[in-house]
Amino acid sequence: MLLDLAREPTSWSGISPLENVPYILGLLGTHLATALPPIVLSFLISLPLGWLANRYRWSRGALLTVVGILYAIPSVPLFVVLPVLIGTGLQDPINVVIALTLYGIALMVRSTADGLESVDPDIRQAATGMGFSSRGRFWRVELPLAGPVLIAGLRVVAVSTISLTTVGAVLGIKSLGRLFTEGIQRNIPTEIWTGILLTIVVALLFDVLIVLLGRVLLPWNRSSKPAISIMAPKLADA
Amino acid sequence: MNLFIDGLLWIFDPAHYGGTNGINTRTLEHLGISGAVLLIAIVIAVPLGYLIGHTGRGRGFIIALSGGVRALPTLGLIAVLGLSIGIGLDAPLIALVILAIPSVLAGAYSGFEAVDRRTIDAARAMGMTEWQIVRRVEIPLGLPLLIGGVRSAALQVIATATLADYIGGGGLGHYIFAGQQTGDYPQMLAGSILVVALALISEGLFGLLQRLVVPAGVSAGRPRNVRERSVRASAAVGS
Questions:
Q1: The domain spanning residue B30 has which CATH number?
Q2: How many helices (H) and strands (E) does chain A have?
Q3: Residue B236 falls inside a structural domain
Q4: Are residues B176 and A68, on separate chains, in Cβ contact within 8 Å?
Q5: Which residue of A has its CA nearest to B161?
Q6: Å from B189 to nearest chain A CA?
Q7: Under a CB-based contact definition with an 8 Å cutoff, are residues B65 and B105 in contact?
Q8: Range of the domain at B133
Q9: Under 8 Å CB-to-CB from B167, ≥6 apart: which residues?
């Protein structure tokens, strides 16, 4: 098995996915390596930005406008434009990582700001009264209480990012999306279906993982249902 | 950065207008695909969303649908439809409608759900029939949220219509894919800049529309506070 993986096949052969397990696993590995950094990075970067958005009246309007515009930039054009801005090659996976991180930030800054805003002002004052510094209050009171909203936002980011990673394949960037482009070029429906199902399964798996992570980190929240907004947008797929 | 200038020059080159591959033709194609998809999605999703919003039954269905479609890779859908019904415009059209429906549905539904129950009770107490409540209370009050749903659907559709040409469906994506095949980076950038421009224009126009459709009575009574403050803050300092 290790030997098989070492000699990773470069294309799909035959019809059945079962004959192509090493190939699929190779693409899955690349897919995860491309999709996971944006999920983690956008969460981390959005914490200070979300805090800032919630801190001042002007910063909220300004930041939410910027992330709104960022979010409105279609992904395939962004994959084409980014290499010119940062000097990478057109098929460099780093373009996808950066683009998806930007989209993640666009979604997550809003969630973070909303989450922090949802903290009852009386609780904030009580914490100050108990002697928390503003930094301690943020990390130990406001952030944990904003947790459910952050978790809901992170779920949307994770699922969208994993699904959107496939789009890079139209420019030749390796991911599970390769199964779509190759499947249509060589007329192999099973290859495309394998890609679709695997992408959905991986996305839902991460969704469940984040929910579980939320339960572990926010045990006091267990009884209430995670509030995921149905208006939370799906990232545009191109 | 010089490449950007080349991309812009490509857009403004008169030689790239007119004919089946002209920028004007491709832009109209792109807008035509997007408009048709939105229209079909609205016809399907708005009545359904209103029904669910008015009766309050089927909320779980909307949540499951929007979650499921978020995970569904549209490129895969376009590819699999392309193989079964042939290359061209049909496959991307169907895929884009599937992509657009959840946003419009959620907009229609949440527009109804957001209406204060007391407002509906008041309308009923005034003797309005169910149909009148829908037409004269729920639809006008829910319109901004519906437009919000159509707005995000439009953004997704304009962005994703770029993929239509991957299986020969035309639109502005053509410049990106044709440019890549011939190694013509300015052409790829030109296509990208045009798609981004369309997306931003759509966002701007729908944002404006969203403000315009707020009923006058609602905007007059809307609270203006951005950040909620504790009442005790003012009590403590005595103002």
A1: 1.10.3720.10
A2: 10, 0
A3: no
A4: no
A5: A238
A6: 6
A7: yes
A8: 2-15+24-220
A9: A184, B78, B79, B82, B87, B88, B91, B92
Q: Is domain A19-221 annotated with CATH 3.40.50.2300?
A: no
Element (H, E) at B123: helix B117-125
Q: Read out DSSP for A151-201?
A: HHHHHHHHHHHHHHGGGGGGGT--STTHHHHHHHHTT-HHHHHHHHHHHHH
Q: Is residue B87 part of a domain?
A: yes
Is B8 domain-assigned?
yes
Question: Considering CB atoms only, which of A121, A192, A234 is closest to B229?
Answer: A121
Contact A194, A206 (CB under 8 A): no
Asked whether B172 and B26 are in contact (CB, 8 A), the reply is yes
How many domains does chain B divide into? 1
Q: For each of chain B's 239 residues, which pLDDT tens digit applies?
A: 688 899 899 999 888 888 888 999 999 999 999 999 999 999 999 999 999 988 888 888 888 888 888 899 999 999 999 999 988 889 999 999 999 999 999 999 999 888 888 999 999 999 999 899 999 999 999 999 999 999 999 999 999 999 999 998 889 999 999 999 998 999 999 999 999 999 999 999 999 999 898 887 776 655 555 444 444 444 444 43
Residues of B in contact with A167 (CB under 8 A): 73-75, 163
CB A131 within 8 A of CB A157: no
Domain contains B238: no
